[in-house]
Amino acid sequence: MRTSYLPAIVLAAVLAVLPFVVPVYFLHLLIQIVLWAFIYTAWSLMGRFGFVSFGHGAFMGVGAYVPALLWNYYGVTPWVGIPIGVVVSALLAVVIGYPCFRLKVVGHYFALVTLALSQVVLLSLTAARDITGGSLGFTLKTVGHSWYALQFPEKGYFYGIALLLWLFGLLIWSRIDRSISREALEAISEDEDAAAAVGINVLHEKLRVTVISAALTALGGAIYAQYIMYLNPESESGIVVSLQIVFAAVAGGVYSMLGPTVGALLTISLTEGLRVWFGVTFIGAANTIYGVLLILCIIFMPQGIVGALQRVKLTRSPANAVPAE
């Protein structure tokens, strides 16, 4: 067994035991952490190669709203609605990605295009208030404990689903990391023209990783909506959600398999801790402190928390020690 998998296996074992020993409130937080960790991991599939997208809030929103609307209006089971939402998000990624990659829209220009996409989806969901509930949002129709409706009053069921989803995300991350596509994508991120000159299909590689990232994000958004049972454009899509995904993944470390998971643990724990600490006093202070700490983390640890820890480990390893004279 490769030692690089050992931390993930140990963490998975600990997470499997947690629902039996923690209170319901902390289990609720754990479910959110694991679900967001999956979404952050999905974004890092692009971010680690320099393809910075601020549009993943759009993919998450589409993935969340499509199965929810199909269930509320037509009674379509989420087992059918969720794949439809994932496919729609993947098509949206093709629609926005193909012309950008074909016309070589890169860097901050690509980031701005995806940022606009995120806002377009947010405004569309808000404008269609007769269907989506607009800015007030809407609640999924509840039927109690049902595998058909993917609704469970007991949080343990969703914890198991979230854990399996997270492990699936790590598997996809690992498969890409160990495939020939990693070398191709790294070459593209360095110099697209040089990569094309050596025979790499730049358009195909960039579009493929974008579609995979968008589809996984939509899947995470769908499961998150099924768990929360309430959808709102501001919390499921838009610029705020997109920036949350980017900042948390970067803070944890996009170049490590467990970096986005650490980012989810940090950001959600910090957000909830500050909310409980300040309560109804000093309204806005919690978000301000959260933002400042996140900015400081990104400035002083550009490789993320996991990247910084790995760098410290390398500098202290015996192989890098200075030999005594």
Note down, in words, how this protein is organized.
It is built from 15 helices and 2 strands. The chain is globular and about 55 Å long. The protein starts with 5 loop residues before the first helix and ends in a 9-residue tail after the last helix. With 325 residues, it is mainly α. Helix 4 (78-102) packs antiparallel against helix 10, helix 7 (155-177) packs antiparallel against helix 10 (202-228) and helix 13 (259-278) runs antiparallel to helix 14. The mean pLDDT is 86. It has one domain (3-238). A two-stranded antiparallel ribbon has the order 1-2.
Helical content (DSSP H or I, runs of 4+)? over 70%
Task: Enumerate how many helices there are, as a single number.
Answer: 15
Strand content: under 5%
Gyration radius from CA atoms, angstroms = 20 Å
Mean pLDDT: 86
Elements, N to C (H/E): HHHHHHEHHHHEHHHHH
Domain module count? 1
The major beta sheet can be summarized as: 2 strands, antiparallel
Strand order of the largest sheet: 1-2
Global geometry: globular
State the assembly state of the protein chains.
single chain
Runs with pLDDT <50, length 5+?
none
Q: In terms of structural class, how would the helical and strand content be classed?
A: mainly alpha
Count of extended strands:
2
Straight-line N-to-C gap: 38 Å
